Amino acid sequence: MSVHKKELKKVTTHRLHEMKQNGEKIAMLTAYDFSMARLLDSAGIDVLLVGDSASNVMAGHETTLPITLDQMIYHASSVVRAVERALVVVDLPFGSYQGNSGEALRSAIRIMKESGAHAVKLEGGAEVEESVARILTAGVPVMGHLGLTPQSIYKFGTYTVRAKEEAEAKKLIDDAKLLEEVGCFALVLEKIPAKLASKVASELSIPVIGIGAGLDVDGQVLVMQDMLGITQDFKPRFLRRYADLQQIITDAVGNYVHDVKSKDFPNEEEQY
Ligand code: KIV
Questions:
Q1: Does the beta carbon of 124 sit less than 6 angstroms from any atom of ligand 1?
Q2: CA 260 to CA 272: how far, in whole Å?
Q3: How many other CB atoms sit within 10 Å of the CB of residue 62?
Q4: Per-residue confidence band for 5, with pLDDT thresholds at 50, 70 and 90
Q5: What's the pTM?
Q6: 51 CA to centre of ligand 1 in angstroms
Q7: CB 66 within 8 A of CB 97
Q8: Which atom of ligand 1 lies closest to the CA of 52?
């Protein structure tokens, strides 16, 4: 029986805090469409992130920068319609919150109003403090994101591990504490040394969700297409593949093509 059938109590930001306090790990995955979101929700996922990684895995862009607020709202509303239990968090896309807290507030309100999502996520620390604070004034829960922040890829130049040097690690710790103080309900740490992530998770009272940040945090997040093996050329060390859907789909479609061409499909029972 799926977790969904046993317990339909909705996951809230408060529940995530309780989970951290009880030492219960938080399982989060990305989702961008109705059908997949329904499967992931019934399988017992705690948090669904409508990530701006949709720009890569759904739209085929090289970076997360091109996706628009309208496109994020489209993906988010599809996910929200599918979900009965999970908390749905939506990424504020590049250009919708940086540098102008009024615009950040308007973007967050559009996401909440037009998609029905439960929270937003944005990248950065001190640079976006004002935007985070302004969004929170409207009662919109905010999840932070530090470490490798893909919207800044042209500043970093590469997707390698962040905060290995002392100065960057110190800024990350300061930013994490600042985001907690301002009022973020949770924080994503992406691709940083496990020891640093562990230190941040132990010093913060809000849940810390890692991706490539080791085991000693409060939960894990992966991009759904990567963990299900739909994408095959993305092979970072932190990624564990739980299925090889590329092979399964390729075989199934190959069989379908064969059956159509050989006139095996449809048979007597498959017609009216
Ligand atoms: O957009 C995304 O998928 C993300 C996760 C990698 C955390 O931000």
A1: no
A2: 17
A3: 9
A4: low
A5: 0.96
A6: 5
A7: no
A8: 1
Report the largest interatomic distance among the alpha carbons of the chain, rounded to a whole angstrom. 70
The tens digit of pLDDT for each residue in 45-75 reads: 999 999 999 999 999 999 999 999 999 999 9
**pLDDT digit string, tens, across residues 193-225:** 999 999 999 999 999 999 999 999 999 999 999
Residue 190: active-site member: yes
CA quadruple 188, 64, 45, 181: dihedral, nearest 10 = 20
> Which atom of ligand 1 lies at the shortest distance from residue 222's CA?
6
Tokens of 128: 């976006």
User: Where in the chain is CATH 3.20.20.60?
Assistant: 13-241
Domain 13-241 has CATH 3.20.20.60: yes
Work out whether strand 142-147 and strand 208-211 pair parallel, antiparallel, or are unpaired. Answer: unpaired
The span from the CA of 134 to the CA of 105, in Å, is: 6
Q: Which two tokens stand for residue 73?
A: 């709202």
The whole-chain average pLDDT of the chain stands at 97
Strand partners, 211: 190
